[in-house]
Structure formats: C-alpha cells, structure tokens
C-alpha cells in the first residue's frame, strides 16, 4: 500500500485518522516504540509527545493522569463536526466519556464508547489533520474491533459512518470480529490498533528484546498476518504483516 502511505488533507468522516497511547512512563514509551518502529519524537499538545516516521506524524504518547486509567492505545475517527457526531453517538446507543473539547488550533476531540463499551475517540481537524503517513511499516495499518455481538457493532458503526464503511470506494481501515475467536471470554470488547511490519516474526523478537511480551502468537486474518503484543508497560497493540 505504498501509494497510500503519505496523506495530505482531512480524512473523510469515519476513517481512522489518529492513535495515541496513555502510558505511566513517557520516556520508557519513547525508548520502546523508537526501538521497535524507528519513531522519532517531538513536542505534542500539553504533556504529550508526537511520534514521527520520516518526518511525518504517526501517533502520540501521553502520560496517564492517574493510576486508575488503563494503559492503552486509543483509536480516533475523523469527523468534520465533533459536536454533531457526539450527538449521533448517544442517539444510537453509545456513551460520551468526554464531551467535545478544543485543543487550541489543532482541532477538537472527544472520547466515547459504543453500545458494548468499546472505547474510541473522535477527531475534528484544525491544523492537525491526523496521520501524515500510514499503511506502511512502522505506521498505523488497521484497527480491529473485537465485539461480543458483531451485529450490534455493525449496526452502530454503520449508522455513524455509513459512507466510510459501505459507500462508493469505501476504505474504512477497521473491521469487526468476534471477541471469543481470539481472546478469553473475560476480555472486554475493545479496538485493537495494528501497526505495519515487514516481518512479523522479526518484529516479535524485537518486542521481546525491548521488554514487551507476546499476547497472541501470529495468526492469519483476512487482512494479513497478525500478532497481538503488549509493550513494556502493558499497552496492547498488534503487528500486521501484509
């Protein structure tokens, strides 16, 4: 997908446009992801840092504000109007964790859950459009929603993002799967962020060398070869070899 690696301009509504991780130790996060993906880092908004690949923004790392927050990667969907989308989320059975908030000139964001309590973010761009690069090694490649009831998920996200999922030329960058096919029954529904790698086995070795661990060994999915891992602070993500 090299032809789609570099991106300019706002993403269509419903397309994943940004990911961030909330971590206890920001410096440790920079060492881990810099070592795994070759990311460099610069100042982000507030206390966060932005990760860059070949000079383009690809993700953010942020410190957890309290120990009760999960150590997790969060997926954000693009929207031209965060307030209107927030209203639709609640109308269709979701719940707002935070109401739309403007982050200076960068844009506006909110956190929400779907009807099964899977957490996601929304992003209305200002000066920050989202991923500067994607669909290549070391950048966002896919997101999979692991749901208890995929019909509930399809109905909810189809109502919110019909054109991105089902419209002409749709390229949603996220799928829906049965939670029980990959994870233990007690695992809550969640989005799993996938980063591209050239060689999944080699990348798994690097994850372990950097202090991470393998959560689910490599398996074949419809969109590529996937392994689920955690970083050295417990945040889960997936490696995707196309």
TrEMBL record:
Transmembrane segments: none annotated. Residues 15-125 form the VOC domain. InterPro entries: Anthracycline_SecMetBiosynth, Glyas_Bleomycin-R_OHBP_Dase, Glyas_Fos-R_dOase_dom, VOC_core. This is VOC family protein.
């Amino acid at each position: 997908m090299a032809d789609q690696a570099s991106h300019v301009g706002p993403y269509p509504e419903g397309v994943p446009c940004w990911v961030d991780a909330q971590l206890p130790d920001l410096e440790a996060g920079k060492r881990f992801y810099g070592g795994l993906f070759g990311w460099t880092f610069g100042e982000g908004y507030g206390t966060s840092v932005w990760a860059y690949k070949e000079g383009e923004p690809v993700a953010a790392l942020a410190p957890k504000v309290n120990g009760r927050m999960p150590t997790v990667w969060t997926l954000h969907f693009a929207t031209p109007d965060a307030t209107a989308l927030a209203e639709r989320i609640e109308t269709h059975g979701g719940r707002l964790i935070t109401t739309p908030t403007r982050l200076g000139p960068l844009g506006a964001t909110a956190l929400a859950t779907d009807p099964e309590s899977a957490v996601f973010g929304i992003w209305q761009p200002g000066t920050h459009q989202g991923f500067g690069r994607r669909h290549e090694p070391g950048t966002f490649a896919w997101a999979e929603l692991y749901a208890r009831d995929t019909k509930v998920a399809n109905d909810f996200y189809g109502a919110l993002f019909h054109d991105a999922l089902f419209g002409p030329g749709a390229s949603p960058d996220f799928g829906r799967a049965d939670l029980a096919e990959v994870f233990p029954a007690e695992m809550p529904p969640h989005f799993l962020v996938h980063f591209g790698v050239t060689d999944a086995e080699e990348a798994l070795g690097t994850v372990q060398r950097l202090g991470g661990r393998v959560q689910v060994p490599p398996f074949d999915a419809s969109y590529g070869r996937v392994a689920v891992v955690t970083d050295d602070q417990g945040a889960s993500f997936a490696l995707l070899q196309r």
